[in-house]
Design goal:
The complex is a heterodimer of chains A (373) and B (1004). Chain A has 373 residues and is of the alpha/beta class. In chain A, 41% of the residues lie in helices and 11% in strands. Chain B is globular and about 100 Å long. Chain B has seven domains: 198 residues, FAD/NAD(P)-binding domain (3-Layer(bba) Sandwich); 74 residues, Alpha-Beta Plaits; 163 residues, FAD/NAD(P)-binding domain; 125 residues, Rossmann fold; 183 residues, FAD/NAD(P)-binding domain (3-Layer(bba) Sandwich), CATH 3.50.50; 150 residues, FAD/NAD(P)-binding domain, CATH 3.50.50; 57 residues, 2-Layer Sandwich (Alpha-Beta Plaits). Classes of the chains: A alpha/beta (373), B alpha/beta (1004). Chains A and B meet through helix 11 of A and helix 22 and helix 24 of B.
Chain lengths: 373, 1004
């Protein structure tokens, strides 16, 4: 059962209130450090940073609509070798949290001593768009909040965000609730676990009701789901069949940036970077001779299909693979399209719960009767 | 007396194969003698089995030390280095005694010299004599010289001496002079310590039941004929057709109990109900429009999972079930449809037409079986099956001779497999321990394929046969240019003994370390192993391409395609041998002691069977004393008084120095793997004790179902069968004082919440009804039942009870009897389904058959990491072929922990489980297979996906090094880990990426 409290905004604005809240977590020693996006001095981007001083946290901006990296990857990096020695609060967007939960299931991260602080997500812009947006606005964060409140479907939002039906964090100890909150007055603080409740108690925040949260959330989810249907349909048309799929991936240069941006791709060394894919010249010429022509770099289709095969059941649709592609291949669209079908098939939502087993690890005698013999 | 280490198994059906493999795996020499020209028995005639509707026969094959048995499919025949298969052979004389039998076996010649025969099939082609194929139940035709069934590999040809006209066509056509038309018989003396009789059954000859028109009406067939029709290898290649017009029948009627449950054979054949349900299921799945009816007397779906399967056929697939023994079948001569007089829904008799009728024929002993038993000096029972001993379904009347499967009475595959294991266990008692076991393998230390590859290629012409469609010259020319090929030669007959000499010579001359053979399916694993040993080449470095079957015979008129395909296949095979790099097989040591969990009769029997081999056994029992449920069961129908058995077992267990009793104790944790488990036991004094064992047997039993139905618990005159049995046995209840007793069957069983049959309650009711009648013939006993599950020889007692005046009244599950208590008088009301009227009974006593429920198995299942089935019983590895094992190697299950079953059946299962454990525990070391998985640590991210997906418990995280390791002896090389691992860190030897890539490249 979720419990709610409120963080009053006063005259410092929503961002100020969140900074204040984060600082108080450090001051009251509820956490020893925080992993949170900090604004760059230039102001045109944010970077996840481990902050231990309450002063420095004043530069935090988890509301900025930009996600240069999926921070689940960073939490994995921090906790993979050994779990955190001190209490670390991590401020994450829903897709980051979901990816983190998947990584925990894949034993690539540990939640020991972690306080999971989620934040409702209205979506993000690409790094370039955000830079432009900041340049054109005097108070970009407030402007963004106003923008999403007032208009439906911000065209600047990344495609992945436009169709994301998970704007609310799952599995968080605490959630900074923007949806259904009166952001002129207060931010909701939602406790999803007993740990979250403890923090609320320690901070002495007043319990509150969240009468409008549910309808605000369901309204946004419905809107996003509708958009998803529309965009997935579009994608399906664009990549349908071998020829269209080949054409979509034709400009791939095998840089593997998508794999680096992906929060889930966790191999030490990508199989496609391994010596298995280093061939003698005679092989290349031999293939060319056999088929008449060999498109280079080769094995790009195999790379994407293999990555799809390995990761799609856990894909959270954060869309950073598309952002990372130098040639604008819509990698995320393909993953989202296939992921949506696969996840539906196994009734699996990546990051929904730690208890839910990965589809590949469960076996049922009678399963998928329509597939195979 | 010097005991022999060898054993003779008579009958190579499923029972004989299982018993032989069990003995062979334990290192004994096995002579497996079969009257017919090929192994497999009735089993290979069948195609698929319930519950999974697949062929899973290969599940019988051993999973530990698996490379020692060199085969993958049992339909092709049985091949094991420790098993000598004697086909066309019969036992004619037996002398000596247990431990030292001398057996004379007489073998009829097949007319075809197996050493010379190349399996080309020309003899069959020219033979002018057509005969009925016995394998296809007479539905298909074959020749007087032919193979006995289409699956056997290599193809073994034999002459049907009765039908052969000695015309000599085949003799002159045979390219290798392998045929001799003079029938010869040879005898051989065998010395064995024990004998296992596994001769199976004969299907009832349906011609004897003349009223059904079998063989007179073309569309009346037997259930086994239907099995052949449904088989893709059968006479209609799997198409369901009726023989009068070759059409798919629109309606089919199955008639049950043909040749069973009548005055001449007053027993139930046990397997036919499920056999019919399975065939109906297969038909409904493939031809959903076909109207399928099963006419039965009692639907005996009593085994584990059977009731569910039956319900699925009825409710999901729409198979119609009608309770009615059909008296006669008539034919409409115009349409050849069959007219049956059957009961309609309201019970009235109506005439119905069906397009096909299937007679579910029962199991009978073979005509010559009595005579055969006389030769062995073992007794036969009333119905001509082998007589077994009380509480022991595997012991015959003669020491050292055991029986299993349908030879001792009708049964299904699962029970047969259990008995085969138990019989192997019994027989091993009389054998000396096999000495040869260790020295089998020479020490091979070096890794395969370390030297620079040099390959010799031999292309067999098969006396011109292969050359018919394939340009061997061009092929040889082409392959000679490929990498590592140092020598190519064409050979007329690769399978000839002289060829071996040639190959040996060439290997030496050309310093060859790999061989590639273009030949036929005749060159199978055993042949190759022999060749490898003699030519001094590692067997892994010899590959065969079947030029004859896969190319010439497929592309007879397409020489271009034949050549292209041959080039591809040979190039791939060459790449395969070129890249092989197996490290030497690893060995895992075994802790020779066992843990038995549960001190009931199953647990005690298991402990005794294991301890008999001087293996230390830890027997853990939760309660303060041994005995379990058997303390409450005082007799069984077939074996009589149980208490002497129980007392004897407790005494033996208590006095056995190899058995360590842990009473009032529980298993709290288990780690490790087959051969090396570490078990924590919480002892009586709460202390924790750790024992090291190699195997674990679960025998935790089950519980009696506790009901609140039918006024139980409210009225003292409503009791359970157990309570009746107990008070009767203790003399607390005087049957003389009773005038009327009502028994209600299926209380809580076969219902929505517990959709399984408790198997024992019908026998229990018959037994107690007979006891009551015996004590007081005047008592009126009414048994209210749904289906009487008096399977096998229990049927006789059911008949006896009826003869003694016990009334059996059926009720429908949706109209259960009602028990009412009015002052002193109990009344039972029920609607009798046939007449439809309401019956009111006024008994002194109502006895409820409450059946069996699983014990609290969840906690133990989690400790052992083994699964439970849907009902909460332990789930074995495979329902039919591995009924006492778990997929997790080294753990076995028996008794009520597995499923409801009678005392005799629990004991047989206990012995089978013990046999499995003893086989494992007497292996000093387990040898890993060659094709197993490995971890490339450099690439491993320790996500443990491989551990999660491994079905064999073969992958684990090493606690010290934190690395993901492979328990090599357990790995079956299935490759699930490779699929699950995204990093490419999990690999299968022989199928590494480079190897597979180069194979693919070579193909084009």
């Amino acid at each position: 059962m979720e419990r709610y409290a409120t963080i009053p905004i006063g005259n410092q604005g929503a961002l100020g209130a969140i900074r204040q809240f984060l600082a108080s977590l450090l001051e009251k020693k509820l956490v020893d450090a925080l992993l949170v996006p900090l604004e760059l001095p230039t102001g045109d981007n944010v970077v996840p940073t481990i902050v231990s001083s309450p002063e420095q946290v004043q530069a935090a901006n988890p509301l900025a609509p930009v996600m240069p990296v999926n921070a689940a990857r960073l939490v994995s990096r921090i906790t993979m070798v050994s779990s955190s020695p001190d209490r670390l609060g991590v401020v994450l967007r829903p897709c980051e949290l979901r990816a983190l939960v998947e990584l925990v299931k894949l034993k690539q991260a540990s939640l020991d001593k972690l306080l999971l602080i989620g934040i409702d997500c209205h979506g993000t812009y690409s790094v370039a768009d955000y830079g432009k947006f900041v340049g054109e606005s005097s108070s970009p964060t407030e402007d963004f909040l106003k923008r999403v409140r007032e208009s439906k479907g911000d065209p600047l939002l990344r495609k992945a965000c436009q169709m994301c039906e998970y704007p609310v964090p799952m599995c968080a100890d605490l959630t900074l609730g923007l949806l259904g909150a009166n952001l002129d007055k207060e931010i909701l603080l939602v406790a999803g676990t007993s740990e979250g409740e403890r923090v609320i108690q320690e901070l002495g925040l007043e319990e509150a009701k969240a009468a409008e949260r549910e309808s605000a959330v369901s309204g946004l989810v419905a809107e996003r789901s509708k958009k998803r249907e529309e965009l997935l349909k579009q994608t399906r048309e664009e990549v349908k069949g071998r020829d269209k799929m080949m054409a979509t991936l034709a400009t791939c240069i095998n840089c593997h940036n998508c794999k680096t941006a992906c929060p889930l791709c966790y191999c030490k060394e990508c199989f496609f970077d391994s010596p298995v894919f280093e061939f003698e010249a005679e092989k290349y010429l031999g293939w060319a001779k056999r088929k008449g022509a060999l498109r280079m770099p080769n094995d790009t289709l195999l790379f994407h299909l293999t990555r799809l095969n390995h990761m799609v059941a856990s894909c959270v649709g954060c869309g950073l693979c598309t952002e990372a592609c130098p040639n604008d291949i819509p990698v995320s669209d393909i993953f989202r399209l296939v992921g949506y079908e696969v996840q539906k098939l196994f009734d699996y939502v990546p990051g929904r719960s730690l208890e839910e087993e990965l589809p590949l690890t469960t076996f049922k005698e009678e399963e998928l009767p329509d597939i195979g013999v | 007396m010097a005991k022999s280490e060898a054993v003779l198994v008579i009958g190579a059906g499923v029972a004989g194969i299982k018993a032989s493999l069990d003995m062979a795996e334990a290192g004994h020499s096995v002579y497996l003698c079969e009257r017919k020209p090929s192994a497999g028995g009735t089993l290979v005639q069948m195609d698929k089995w319930f519950p999974d509707n697949h062929c899973s026969m290969c599940q019988i094959l051993p999973t530990l030390n698996r490379d020692r048995s060199s085969q993958n499919c049992l339909r092709r025949g049985l091949v094991h280095p420790n098993v000598e298969l004697l086909l066309n052979a019969e036992v004619t004389e037996l002398q000596g005694e247990a431990g030292d039998f001398r057996v004379t076996v007489s073998t009829r010649s097949t007319g075809v010299d197996a050493q010379l025969c190349t399996g080309c099939g020309l003899c069959t082609e020219v033979c002018p004599v057509e005969v009925e194929s016995q394998f296809d139940e007479g539905l298909g035709r074959k020749k007087a010289i032919d193979t006995s069934n289409p699956y056997v590999t290599p193809r073994q040809y034999a002459i049907d001496w009765e039908k052969c006209t000695r015309c000599g066509e085949c003799v002159s056509k045979c390219p290798t002079q392998a045929i001799n038309l003079e029938q010869k018989e040879s005898t051989r003396q065998l010395q064995v310590g024990a004998i296992i009789v596994s001769t199976g059954f004969e299907e009832f000859d349906a011609r004897l039941a003349t009223q059904y028109g079998y063989r007179r009406y073309p569309n009346v067939i037997t259930s086994i004929e239907l099995e052949r029709i449904l088989s893709p290898g059968g006479p209609s290649e799997g198409e369901l057709v009726r023989s009068s017009d070759g059409r798919v029948p629109a309606s089919i009627a199955f008639l049950q109990c043909i040749g069973s449950r009548d005055s001449r054979r007053d027993y139930c054949s046990s397997a036919c109900c499920m056999f019919a349900v399975k065939e109906a299921t297969l038909i409904k799945k493939a031809w959903p429009q076909t109207d399928v009816h099963i006419f039965f007397m009692d639907l005996r779906a009593f085994g584990k999972g059977y009731h569910r399967y039956y319900e699925r056929a009825r409710d999901e697939l729409g198979v119609n079930f009608t309770r009615c023994r059909v008296p006669v079948v008539k034919e409409d001569p115009q349409t050849h449809n069959l007219v049956l007089t059957v009961a309609s829904e309201d019970g009235a008799l109506v005439r119905r037409q069906f397009e096909m009728v299937v007679l579910s024929v029962g199991q009978t002993p073979a005509p010559q079986f009595r005579e055969f038993c006389q030769v062995l000096g073992v007794e036969t029972s009333r119905w001509g099956f082998c007589q077994t001993q009380p509480f022991s379904t595997i012991e015959t009347s003669r020491k050292g001779i055991y029986v299993c499967g349908s030879a001792a009475g009708p049964k299904d595959i699962a029970d047969t497999i259990v008995e085969a294991g138990a019989a192997a266990g019994g027989a091993s008692k009389w054998l000396s321990s096999p000495a040869a076991r260790k020295a089998e393998k020479e020490e091979v230390e070096e890794q395969v394929g370390e030297e620079e590859p040099r390959t010799a290629v031999f292309l067999c012409g098969c006396g011109g046969e292969i050359g018919l469609a394939l340009d061997l010259e061009q092929l040889a020319d082409n392959i000679g240019k490929l990498p590592s090929v140092t020598y190519v030669e064409q050979i007329p007959y690769l399978c000839y003994a002289e060829t071996l000499e040639t190959i040996k010579k060439r290997v030496k001359e050309h310093k060859v370390n790999r061989l590639l053979l273009g030949a036929c399916a005749y060159i199978n694993k055993p042949v190759l192993d022999k060749l490898a040993a003699q030519a001094g080449i590692d067997p892994e470095l010899i590959k065969v391409v079947n030029l004859r079957e896969d190319i010439t015979w497929v592309h007879r008129d397409q020489p271009d395609k034949a050549l292209a395909k041959a080039k591809s296949l040979l190039a791939m095979a060459l790449e395969d041998v070129r890249q092989q790099d197996y490290p030497p097989a690893s060995l895992t040591s075994v802790t020779p002691s066992a843990l038995v969990i549960g001190g009931g009769i199953a647990g005690m029997m298991t402990a005794l069977s294991v301890a008999q081999h001087e293996i230390e056994v830890h027997l853990v029992e939760r309660s303060p004393e041994l005995g379990g449920n058997l303390k409450e069961v005082f007799s069984t129908l077939e074996s009589g008084d149980t208490q002497p058995l129980l007392r004897d077992a407790i005494e033996q267990v208590s006095n056995n120095s190899h058995i360590h009793l842990h009473l009032e104790s529980e298993v709290t944790a288990v780690s490790g793997y087959a051969g090396n488990f570490s078990v924590s036991i919480k002892e009586k004094d709460e202390s924790l004790n750790t024992v090291e064992v190699g195997a674990i047997i679960v025998a935790t039993g089950g519980d009696e179902y506790h009901t609140t139905e039918y006024q139980y618990g409210q009225n003292s005159k409503v009791i359970t069968q157990h309570e009746l049995e107990k008070t009767l046995s203790a003399g607390e209840l005087d049957p003389g004082g009773l005038s009327s007793v009502v028994m209600i069957q299926c209380v809580g069983s076969r219902e929505k919440d517990r959709p399984y049959c408790s198997r024992v309650c019908c026998s229990q009711a018959v037994k107690n009804a007979l006891k009551l009648k015996e004590a007081n013939p005047e008592i009126e006993v009414n048994v209210l039942y749904r289906d009487m599950m008096s399977y096998g020889f229990k049927e006789e007692y059911y008949t006896m009870a009826r003869e003694k005046g016990v009334r059996f009244i059926r009720y429908e599950p949706d109209r259960k009897p009602e028990v009412k208590a009015d002052k002193e008088q109990l009344t039972v009301e029920l609607v009798e389904p046939v007449v439809g009227g309401t019956l009111v009974l006024e008994p002194d006593l109502v006895v409820l058959s409450t059946g069996v429920t699983p014990g609290e198995n969840r906690a133990l299942a989690d400790i052992l990491t083994v699964p439970l089935d849907e009902d909460g019983f332990f789930q074995e590895a495979e329902e039919k072929f591995r009924p006492v094992d778990f997929l997790r190697e080294g753990i076995y299950v028996c008794g009520l922990a597995h499923s409801p079953r009678g005392v005799e059946e629990s004991i047989a299962q206990a012995r089978a489980a013990a046999r499995g454990a003893v086989s494992l525990l007497t292996s000093e070391q387990l040898e890993a297979g060659r094709i197993i998985s490995e971890t490339v640590q450099r690439q491993c991210r320790k996500c443990e996906m491989c551990i999660a997906v491994c079905p064999y418990d073969a992958r684990a995280r090493d606690e010290e090094t934190n690395e993901i390791v492979v328990r090599e002896a357990l790995c079956q090389g299935c490759g699930a880990c490779v699929v699950a691992c995204p990093s490419g860190a999990a690999k299968i030897r022989g199928f590494r990426d480079r190897q597979v890539f180069s194979l693919i490249d070579a193909a084009f």
